[in-house]
Design brief:
single chain
Length: 553
């Protein structure tokens, strides 16, 4: 395997997997060589089968049946095998030639055997290897077209009984079950290849149903059953392509399956069968889906299938009908409909649906959508009304800021500001928790500091609001800001974590600025000295104060 290097392994696997692979180099066993490939077993959490490949330009690749490798990643087990190959590079030509000689000798031996001796050998191996016997039985049944035996064998393959304990297949046994069950799709494909596509289609449907029936009884943490379900779905599609079933019958099965729990396992998409269904089949597909949806308009599966089908046919009116049949009380569905109509350039109808949603509910996203549409249409008065009503319902700083933005654009902010503040003052007077803290927030956001101080003193404020008020007022009301800082410092002196120390130092810097503005830096120096004496055991605090020049003028 010339050209294989540690640098290439590191680039393929990434630093983490490469470093972890170093620890597995001694766990590699059973190395086999072929033309362009090397296989081995690597012992990890389990024993994994690993195959390392070399591309035409010397770029290595590989596969591993560990969970990470099955996702297409170059895993630590592949790294371990690659490192083993590099370590034995001098011996590779001899081992590769030996592998070729063994294969050639085996082929010559088998070729030279009589029919009876070859049959005896196969029977002997089948007696010792149950999996080999099962695979050959499946191939024989497929070749004979023995549908009854093939159906029986597929049922055995999908039966969890031999692997289950108390009716459940634990994780330790799930892989062995998946390896067995995975043979079902191959058997169905063989039946299609033998000219029995219609029978293969029927068996694929039965196998999908059987697998769906046991999936809840298997610990499928690694997702192997999902892959088997996808393989069975592919086998079904291939069989349908060869058998060309009646389009209406196929449409009926696709809709039934899409609405069944097994749909999550196989991920069959009815639209993937569009070429097989043709015009008549697609019409039947939509008809069956519509009938199922009308019988159960609120179930997710029926709605999702209808939305997929009508969007594929660009039938916007049916899309709207599906959404409208189950309007969410939070206004989200109204917004979906409005956006669908906007996309279809039916803006007037989109606006009507958004307005209907606003009448029936107060949803923030819907309000944002409709405000944008009003603004674009030059209907600023309607946009202000919408934002005003939204603020009245929500009473948040964000809703106030959004009202302010649109009211400024409409040149009516002073009037709207007074209305909004009056609403919050009424709430604060009634001790309504919706308006009480928000009133101070909006006053601070507007920069109306005198009104903010009056509100804080009259109705109270939380520490964050007091701090914001002090920070914004330091230059114009240093004495008031100083009182706030001192009060907040007192609360923090009892805490001992890094966050509290950082907040405390920030407050001390504010206190120093207030004393500087008041011309009382001597008082600040005395205050810092007393604080240092009281807090001297907090070495991290002392160090942080030193870093910020406290004391200092």
């Amino acid at each position: 395997m010339g050209g294989l290097t540690e640098a290439k392994l590191r680039a393929l696997a990434g630093e983490r997997s490469f470093e972890r692979g170093l620890a597995y180099a001694d766990e590699v066993s059973g190395v086999e060589f072929g033309d362009g490939w090397i296989r081995a077993s690597v012992r990890g959490t389990e024993r994994y089968e690993v195959e390392l490949l070399l591309g035409g330009r010397g770029k290595p690749a590989g596969t591993c049946d560990c969970p990470y490798g099955q996702e297409g990643n170059f895993c630590k087990h592949l790294v371990a095998l690659g490192l083993t190959v590099i370590a034995e590079e001098a011996d590779l030509p001899r081992r590769r030639q030996a592998a070729r000689d063994r294969a050639r000798n085996l082929d010559a031996w088998l070729t030279g055997m009589s029919r009876d001796d070859l049959l005896a050998l196969v029977r002997e191996e089948m007696a010792e290897d149950r999996q080999l016997r099962h695979r050959l039985e499946l191939r024989a049944a497929s070749a004979r077209g023995d549908l009854a035996q093939l159906r029986s064998r597929i049922r055995e393959l999908l039966d969890i009984g031999p692997f289950a304990r108390y009716g459940y297949v634990e994780y330790a046994d799930a892989r062995a079950y998946a390896d067995q069950a995975g043979q079902a799709a191959n058997a169905i494909r063989s039946l299609t290849a033998s000219g029995r596509a219609a029978d293969a289609m029927a068996l694929a449907r039965e196998a999908i149903g059987m697998l769906a029936g046991v999936v809840e009884s298997v610990d499928d943490s690694d997702g192997r059953l999902g892959q088997i379900g996808a393989d069975l779905a592919d086998a079904h599609h291939d069989a349908c392509g060869a058998a060309r079933p009646d389009p209406e019958e196929l449409a009926h099965w696709l809709v039934t399956h899409a609405l069944d729990d097994a749909a999550d396992l196989t991920d069959v998409d009815p639209l993937d069968y569009e070429d097989l269904l043709g015009g008549r089949g697609m019409a039947a597909l939509r008809r069956y889906a519509t009938e199922a949806w009308k019988a159960n308009r609120t179930r997710w599966a029926e709605k999702h299938l209808m939305q997929r089908l009508v969007k594929s046919g660009r039938d916007i009116d049916t899309v709207i009908a599906v959404h409208a049949a189950d309007l969410a009380p939070n206004g989200h569905t109204h917004l979906l409909i409005a956006r669908e109509l906007d996309t279809a350039r039916r803006t007037d109808e989109a606006l009507e649906w958004a307005e209907r949603g606003i009448r029936e509910t107060v949803d923030t996203a819907l309000v944002d959508h409709l405000t944008d549409r009003y603004t674009q249409a030059g209907r600023l008065a309607d946009a202000v009304t919408l934002r005003r009503d939204h603020f009245a319902a929500r009473r948040t700083l964000l809703a106030y800021q959004q009202l302010r933005a649109v009211a400024i654009a409409a040149a009516c902010w002073p009037t709207e500001r007074e209305k909004a503040r009056a609403l919050l003052r009424d709430d604060a007077a009634r001790a309504d928790t919706r308006g009480q803290p928000v009133l101070l927030d909006v006053l601070l956001d507007d920069g109306d500091l005198d009104a903010a101080w009056r509100t804080a003193e009259e109705h109270g404020a939380h520490d964050g609001q007091w701090l914001t008020l002090a920070d914004q007022s330091r230059s114009t009301r240093p004495a008031d800001a100083l009182a706030v800082y001192l009060r907040l410092v007192t609360r923090l002196t009892h805490e001992t974590d890094k966050r509290a120390y950082e907040e405390l130092v920030g407050l001390l810097l504010g206190i120093r600025d207030c004393h500087r503005r008041l011309g009382t830096l001597d008082d600040f120096t005395a205050y810092i000295a007393d604080l240092r004496t009281a807090q001297k055991r907090k070495r991290n605090l002392m160090r942080l104060m030193d870093d910020h020049g406290l004391p200092g003028s």
